[in-house]
Design a protein that fits this description.
Layout (H helix, E strand, L loop, with lengths): L1 E6 L13 H18 L12 E12 L8 E8 L7 E9 L4 E13 L37 E6 L13 H9 L4 H6 L1 E9 L8 E9 L2 E5 L3 E8 L1
Antiparallel strand pairs: 1-3, 2-5, 2-7, 3-4, 4-5, 6-8, 7-10, 8-9, 9-10
Helix pairs in contact: 1-2
């Protein structure tokens, strides 16, 4: 288990002075990698051997988003191991112990050249996690409704990471930019669910269908499924 104390800076926040969703996902990604390295699996045992950590699914339940200047405590720990996959759980609280959000995700290792999932045990990567109680499941039904909007997402240079594909944090920025500003100013995100079906390589494009119903936005394409639930 790894714990980090953070103070929200200007670059962490959006126009409402709340933690930007893409920055939240970046923080979740960074602490997950840091904890994995602390458990004995630094880049020398993965990245430098041609193995890439990739996300399969992410789910976040938000009580409220922290605001500019607020001090928060972020905790991450590995969940109970399942074959080929690495569940992970994260919590964010205030310094006073107020629970701000809970997150769960599932990771896998792929071969950098073939882009195919590998058996981590064959590469000496075995992380024995556990359940602390109260975790939210990373599995979720991909519920949708008729999606009338169409837009092209491109894996631009600035949005891609060292794996050579559109980084998971960029999905949130691209999606939020399609939501009307008055809606974003009036409503707050409460649940986020993303399933990464396959990667969008650097420079590639995909057509995304999207729409809104009863405060829920859904974005879907062959590469990913994203659901954002908002409430006042």
């Amino acid at each position: 288990m790894l714990t980090q104390k953070l103070t929200l800076l200007t670059e962490d926040c959006d126009a409402k002075r709340e933690l930007r969703l893409s920055r939240l996902f970046q923080l979740l990604q960074e602490i997950s990698i840091a904890d994995t390295e602390a458990l004995g699996y630094p880049r020398e045992k993965t990245l430098d051997k041609g193995l890439l950590w990739v996300l399969g699914k992410q789910r976040v339940e938000i009580s409220r988003l922290p605001v500019y200047g607020e001090k928060v405590v972020l905790t991450s720990y590995p969940g109970k191991r399942i074959p080929f996959l690495f569940p992970r759980h994260c919590d964010m609280e205030t310094e006073g112990g107020e629970l701000l959000l809970k997150a769960s995700s599932v990771w896998a290792l792929i071969d950098q050249k073939t882009r195919v999932m590998v058996n981590p045990e064959e590469h000496g990567v075995v992380i024995e996690g556990k359940e602390e109680g109260g975790e939210i499941p990373f599995q979720f039904p991909m519920k949708s409704f008729p999606l009338m909007g169409r837009v092209c997402f491109q894996a631009e240079w600035r949005d891609c990471d060292l794996n050579g594909h559109l980084n998971n944090t960029a999905y949130l920025d691209k999606a939020e930019n399609l939501i009307p500003i008055p809606f974003l100013l009036s409503f707050s995100p409460k649940e986020i669910e993303i399933a990464y079906r396959k990667e969008i390589p650097l420079g590639e494009k995909t057509e995304v269908s999207y729409g809104e119903e009863n405060g829920t936005y859904v974005f879907s394409c062959p590469e990913f499924f994203l659901r954002l639930l908002f409430q006042r």
